């Protein structure tokens, strides 16, 4: 789940364009419906019997509707490939129909989906949480006077938590980047317009009320005109307050008549259906776009890679490689698996900067064909003190297992727990675990001559000298890692328990790992992994990533040496509440989670720890408008 480019980039570009078109359509279309555009703007017959589904009423934009449906299906499909998994629409609609016109329409106003079905499918942990989350959804009764929409009370905390379980760190990001749109009055106008429209047909049927009918019509048209011209309070005409009073007076008069309940009921029902649909549709799109931003390499980074590659072939600098250093086991070797130039640069620069003796440090960057030359060129331009840097193209290495020749970055998994009735603890129960990917299992083969390496994930920043890691006595273990006991092996439901030694084993994370390659070879860890991988694979039904995760966990269950906690603080890619002092004191910071520091989405208060280690003066950065 890391920002990776790759061959699918072009496909992504089409998808992005598609989604943008879709968004424009989807904002225009519901608006058109709300304002009654499909019936002609100022025509008097604005209240008609409409089919149940709001989208079905657009006979005039048949083609648009169809393509929207198609795209919507596609968005849905694509979304399914991501974590988090979005609940089916039927889950959401069920609520609206079954609860006697209880409304979740306030969710649209807050932009937060409120739905009872929480699906955190990416989580291998406990999934039985439906009843519990029902409690988190406060329904808002729409009573006959229809004031309810405005006075919706729902605990922001609970909504937030529900959102987080369902959509992951997107919710945090949105909360963080919320720009309050000043449109309270516009919303009030829309509400009044809904109510007036609902009452109008009944009033119009009463012969004795021709004056009220006329007044209502006039007010409705007036509101429609104003709303057609503005969507924020600032757009409203100055004398709008007077219009509110007039409208309210007309409505209250209309309410004093015994009206045909059927009509009002039907109208309100349609409105609710519409807001439901609209809210969930927008939410899905937003999550989708957010996921795109998380997953795809930003355009500027792509530009950087291209420019550097071109530069590499243009320049005739003779490479002075410290070839002997690369395989000298007496030096301190670091391995970074990455396709991201900026990220690798920051890890290496920050490690070298804090090294007691940087000339003893050797860095090996394992990357793919696409980024190989750019990566090389970058480190020629930006040497890091006296450290030696080797860039390796995994696709060109001589390995027996050609299936593993594709670069795979450390994999991240979102794990959420719900402790049943205890909603309050949920905020603390979502984790992003990062673990070894297949590429890690090649290390003993790639670095045949080395005995020990430290593997750093590319979303790490180093703040202390790491040399002491080479003096650790790992007590015969293969992998020195920081453990997190907030998640235990036994809690991961999908793990085939048969191969489990101890269910209480704390989980470990990648990010900073001391690897004893000698021991690794001796114990045949890569072979064990392949065995578990095949074994889990035969179970069937799960994604490759999930299988790889489980195989890695099983492989290392009794081979991890616990590093002291102060070596690493993790969660800077999703957790807004990390203690600042802990961050300052940590030897390494790990930005696991979706909000990587080089992305627009990065958590602002953590970005600077990362950013300050980047040479932001580099000409190529400004040329490509890279400004993380
Ligand atoms: C609307 O689309 C349907 C197919 O979805 C088609 O059968 C019908 O003829 C179209 N109507 C118009 C007016 O284009
Ligand atoms: C809907 O709620 C009202 C009170 O708000 C109640 O009188 C009525 O029986 C309910 N109808 C159904 C079908 O539950
Ligand atoms: C998962 O939920 C079931 C039933 O709700 C419960 O019995 C079980 O203990 C839960 N497991 C964990 C790991 O919370
Ligand atoms: C409807 O809401 C109003 C306040 O908006 C309240 O005074 C009234 O009692 C409610 N009616 C019912 C039937 O709940
Ligand atoms: C996690 O729990 C602690 C106390 O147990 C609380 O102070 C903190 O705010 C919680 N964090 C979140 C994100 O809810
Ligand atoms: C390395 O980091 C330092 C500050 O920590 C910065 O001044 C320098 O430009 C960086 N070098 C590179 C190559 O990014």
TrEMBL record:
It is found in: Golgi apparatus membrane. Its EC number is 2.4.1.-. Keywords: Cell wall biogenesis/degradation, Glycosyltransferase, Golgi apparatus, Membrane, Transferase, Transmembrane, Transmembrane helix. Gene3D superfamilies: Spore Coat Polysaccharide Biosynthesis Protein SpsA, Chain A (3.90.550.10). One of its GO terms (molecular function) is glycosyltransferase activity. It is a single-pass type II membrane protein. One of its GO terms (cellular component) is Golgi membrane. Pathway: Glycan metabolism; pectin biosynthesis. The chain crosses the membrane at residues 12-37. GO terms for biological process: cell wall organization. SUPFAM superfamilies: Nucleotide-diphospho-sugar transferases. PANTHER family: GALACTURONOSYLTRANSFERASE 4-RELATED, GALACTURONOSYLTRANSFERASE 7-RELATED. Belongs to the glycosyltransferase 8 family. This is Hexosyltransferase. It comes from Eruca vesicaria subsp. sativa. The lineage of its organism: Eukaryota, Viridiplantae, Streptophyta, Embryophyta, Tracheophyta.
């Amino acid at each position: 789940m890391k920002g990776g480019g790759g061959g699918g980039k072009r496909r992504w570009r089409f998808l992005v364009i598609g989604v943008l078109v879709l968004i424009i359509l989807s904002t225009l279309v519901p608006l058109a419906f709300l304002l009654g555009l499909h019936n002609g703007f100022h025509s008097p017959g604005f209240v008609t019997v409409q089919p149940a589904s709001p989208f079905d009423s657009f006979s005039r934009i048949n083609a648009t509707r169809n393509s929207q449906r198609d795209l919507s299906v596609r968005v849905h499909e694509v979304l399914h490939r991501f974590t988090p998994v979005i609940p089916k629409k039927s889950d959401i609609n069920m609520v609206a129909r079954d609860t006697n016109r209880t409304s979740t329409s306030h969710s649209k106003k807050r932009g937060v989906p409120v739905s009872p079905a929480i699906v955190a499918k990416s989580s291998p942990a406990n999934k039985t949480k439906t009843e519990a989350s029902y409690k988190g959804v406060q329904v808002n009764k729409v009573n006959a006077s229809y004031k309810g929409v405005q006075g919706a009370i729902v605990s922001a905390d609970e909504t937030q938590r529900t959102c987080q379980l369902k959509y992951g760190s997107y919710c945090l990001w949105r909360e963080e980047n919320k720009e309050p749109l000043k449109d309270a009055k516009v919303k009030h106008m829309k509400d009044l317009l809904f109510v007036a429209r609902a009452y109008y047909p009944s009033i119009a049927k009463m012969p004795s009320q021709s004056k009220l009918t006329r007044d209502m019509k006039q007010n409705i048209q007036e509101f429609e005109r104003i709303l057609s011209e503005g969507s924020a309070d600032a757009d409203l005409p100055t004398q709008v307050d007077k219009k509110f009073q007039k409208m309210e007076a007309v409505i209250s008069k209309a309410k004093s008549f015994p009206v045909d309940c059927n009509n009002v009921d039907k109208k309100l029902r349609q409105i609710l259906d519409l807001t439901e649909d609209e809210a969930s549709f927008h939410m899905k799109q937003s999550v989708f776009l957010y996921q795109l931003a998380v997953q795809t390499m930003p355009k500027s980074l792509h530009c950087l890679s291209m420019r550097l590659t071109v530069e590499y072939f243009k320049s005739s600098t003779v490479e002075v490689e410290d070839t002997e250093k690369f395989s000298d086991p007496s030096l301190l070797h670091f391995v970074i698996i990455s396709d991201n130039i900026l990220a690798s640069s920051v890890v290496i620069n920050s490690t070298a900067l804090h090294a007691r003796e940087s000339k003893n440090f050797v860095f090996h960057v394992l990357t793919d064909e696409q980024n190989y030359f750019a990566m090389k060129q970058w480190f020629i331009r930006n040497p890091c003190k006296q450290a030696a840097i080797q860039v390796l193209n995994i696709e060109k290495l001589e390995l027996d297992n050609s299936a593993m020749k594709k670069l795979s970055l450390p994999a991240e998994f979102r794990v959420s727990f719900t402790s049943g009735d205890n909603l309050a603890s949920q905020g603390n129960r979502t984790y992003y675990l990062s673990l070894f990917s297949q590429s890690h299992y090649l290390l003993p083969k790639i670095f045949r001559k080395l005995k020990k390496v430290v593997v750093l994930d590319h979303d790490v920043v180093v703040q202390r000298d790491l040399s002491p890691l080479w003096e650790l006595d790992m007590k015969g273990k293969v992998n020195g890692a920081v453990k997190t006991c907030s998640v235990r092996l036994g809690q991961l439901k999908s793990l085939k328990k048969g191969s489990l030694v101890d269910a209480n084993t704390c989980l470990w994370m990648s990010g900073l790992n001391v690897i004893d390659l000698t021991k690794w070879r001796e114990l045949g860890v890569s072979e064990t992994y392949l065995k578990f991988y095949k074994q889990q694979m035969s179970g069937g039904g799960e994604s490759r990533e999930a299988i790889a995760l489980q195989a890695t966990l099983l492989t290392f269950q009794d081979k991890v040496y616990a590093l002291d906690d102060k070596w690493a603080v993790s969660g800077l890619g999703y957790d807004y509440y990390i203690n600042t002092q802990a961050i300052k004191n940590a030897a390494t910071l790990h930005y696991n989670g979706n909000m990587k520091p080089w992305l627009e989405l990065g958590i602002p208060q953590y970005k600077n720890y990362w950013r300050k280690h980047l040479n932001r003066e580099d000409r190529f950065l400004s040329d490509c408008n890279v400004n993380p």
